[in-house]
Amino acid sequence: MSMVVEEGIKKISRMLSESEHAVVFTGSGISAESGIPTFRGPGGLWEKYNPEEVASIYGFKRNPKEFWKFAKELIIKSSASPNPAHYAIAELEKEGVVKAVITQNIDMLHQRAGSMRVLELHGSMKYVDCLECRNVYEWEYIEKILQIEQPVCERCGSELLKPRVVFFGEPLPYGILSEAMEESRKADLFIVVGSSLVVYPAAKLPDMAKESGAKLAIVNLEPTEKDFLFDVAIYGKAAEILPKVLEEYRRLKS
Ligand code: APR
Ligand code: ZN
Predict the structure, then answer these.
(1) What is the CA(172)–ligand 2 centre distance, in A?
(2) Which residue from 25, 38, 204, 222 has its CB within 8 A of the most atoms of ligand 1, so it is best to mutate?
(3) Which end of the chain is more exposed for a tag (fewer CB within 10 A), N or C?
(4) CA 167 to CA 157: how far, in whole Å?
């Protein structure tokens, strides 16, 4: 690990040890080491698929088959498990310093790692609704069908089975967004992990935290266009860096 990264880890850990209300904001990069592909950056899904087609509400209604083909790649395989970055964040919540996780991810890995307060800005795959007859399915059931074929509604035969995730062109769940804005305003430390910070309104939250006086830190594989906002930026893999932040934080607190 380079000196620069080691220095960054020390700085973030010190900021955590002085924090009363830290908030962690995550994107697809935190789940990369759990085997779930990111959207942007090298090998990202948007290099292979057109988001308008497979991840917009119009594209979905026009051709749900395309979405489910794409979803198979992104799909939250129940085999995909949390990685050391998710666990480190859950531990920091247990130690009382991280008060909330705001995530853009739909993979439910934060909850599976033990995080209790998780605000899912873009929803999750937990439930799937039939847009025609409103029948509701649990993700585990749909995932099984998906291994074999295109899921259709058992009750009415419709192909329009839509997971409760936010598609491009859809509003974010209002209650969750306002809670996330509230947390960003209350934070005295706002840590971004694994996000390119290009999708709004989620990408506005670091700015809101800063405007309310928070210190900002980011752990990301590559620079983002909002790095100028941050007091500390560490370029590297979340699953390597976050456990070291937790270790250093515990050393400072002991
Ligand atoms: N550790 C840390 N960061 C990583 C890692 C890793 N192992 N691997 C990749 N990254 C970084 C990439 O460098 C990239 O900047 O994670 C970031 C992922 O960015 P995106 O793929 O754009 O993901 P995200 O920011 O979550 O996208 C936001 O866009 O497509 C929509 O709705 C979708 O929620 C998603 C939103
Ligand atoms: Zn139906």
Answers:
(1) 24
(2) 38
(3) C
(4) 23
Q: Which residues are catalytic?
A: 122
Does residue 1 have a pLDDT over 90? no
Q: Which two tokens stand for residue 78?
A: 């129940």
Token readout for 216 is 């900002």
Give the distance (Å) from ligand 2 centre to CA of residue 49: 27
Which residue type does 120 have?
E
Tens of pLDDT, residues 51-96:
888 889 999 999 999 899 888 877 655 568 999 999 999 999 999 9
Burial of 96 (0-12, 13-18, 19+ CB in 10 A): exposed
Q: How far apart are CA 231 and CA 205, in angstroms?
A: 15
The Cα–Cα gap between 98 and 83 comes to 18
**Encoded tokens for 155:** 């009750």
The CB of 29 under 6 Å from ligand 1? The reply is: yes
Q: Is 192 in the pocket of ligand 1 (CB under 6 A)?
A: no
The neighbour count for residue 252, using CB atoms within 10 Å, is 12
Contact 221, 31 (CB under 8 A): no
Distance CA 128, CA 117 (A): 22
E runs forming strands in the chain = 22-26, 98-103, 118-120, 123-130, 136-138, 161-165, 189-193, 215-220, 232-235
Which amino acid residue places its CA nearest to atom 8 of ligand 1?
A: 29
Q: Does the Cβ of 195 fall within 6 Å of ligand 1?
A: yes
Peptide bond into 223 cis (omega under 30): no
pTM: 0.95
- Residue 116's region, left for phi above 0, alpha for psi from -120 to 50, else beta, is alpha
Distance CA 72, CA 10 (A): 39
